[in-house]
Amino acid sequence: MIRGYRNVMENCRDNMMVLKDGLEKTGRFNIVSKDEGVPLVAFTLKDHSNFNEFQISDMLRRYGWIVPAYTMPPDAQHVTVLRVVIREDFSRTFAERLVIDITKVVHELDLVPARVVSTNTVAVSGEEDGEDGDKVIISKSVLETQRKITTAWRKFVMDRKKTNGVC
To answer: Which InterPro entries match (predicted)?
Structure first.
């Protein structure tokens, strides 16, 4: 019984190392978890200027992965991590596939214009015809404008991918 459990845990640890090594080879992540103990890989972006861990987590869902992103507890709230727990059914093939999918997501996010951190109150102002033909003043924050641009850019990238495939 102990030997079987040991084999399972050694296999989980080996798969954890495959995932960890693959993420390190991308050069985009810092591994913050330890190699000992629970088989998991917690990692954070080295560069947060264009996107963050929450965006990576969100986009990985398109590939069928649920990789949670969360901020650390008080005194370390400025740190956000992605976490993958290696279970018994998480094979070496899965580990390699996850690295490939994370690399794809990071590449896609690299194509999206850099996010705006500023919270200026008004970025775009203008007039538009309302329902009754009256003029309506539009005022959007920089963040709202950036979100619309990002959404449009993602749609453009996704539509382009759809046309590149072979039917």
So the answer is: Glutamate_decarboxylase, PyrdxlP-dep_Trfase
- Give the position of tokens 């279970």: 87
Q: CA 151 to CA 142: how far, in whole Å?
A: 14
Strand order across the beta sheet in which 69-71 lies:
29-31, 40-45, 80-85, 69-71
Q: 43 and 66 in contact (C-beta within 8 Å)?
A: no
Instruction: Supply the pTM of this predicted model.
Output: 0.67
CATH number of 2-111: 3.90.1150.160
Instruction: Classify 73 as helix, strand or coil.
Output: coil
Q: Tens digit of pLDDT for each residue in 67-120?
A: 999 988 888 778 899 999 999 999 999 999 999 999 999 999 998 876 543 333
- With beta carbons less than 8 A apart as the criterion, state whether 53 and 44 touch: yes
Residue 120, number of CB atoms within 10 A of its CB: 10
Residues with Cβ < 8 Å from 39, sequence gap 6 or more?
A: 9, 12, 13, 15, 16, 85, 86
pLDDT of residue 121: 37
